What does this fold into?
Amino acid sequence: MRLVTAIPFALLSLIPPALADGPSFDCDKAAAPAEHLICADSELVRLDGLMGETYNARRTSLPDAQRKALLDQQRDWLKTRLTRCGIPTQGGEPNEQQHWAWASCLADRSRERRAGRGVNEP
It folds into this structure.
């Protein structure tokens, strides 16, 4: 009887992980401080992956005319989150102090965005 109940759980390990298990970009090509930060933090990896999935699902559901507006809005949000978190657009990997300060801020901004709050909110 135990073997029968164990089989379904064993099969679960064969299912590939969800797309949100990785960031929305290739960490091997990370260049900006925010990219390095995301790749070094499992929660930020998860949130960035979810953000990428949400963005792509939304983009594919829109007519062509509205896709550009969504892209522009996403680009604005990406710039705004860096400004709000005090993260420079250029440079290398953040030091430990920067990591902890910036990671918390990026996570908060990502959660806000996924909750549907606007780009220009304070």
About this structure: The two ends are 58 Å apart (CA to CA). The chain has a mean pLDDT of 80. Residues 27 and 39 are 6 Å apart (CA to CA).
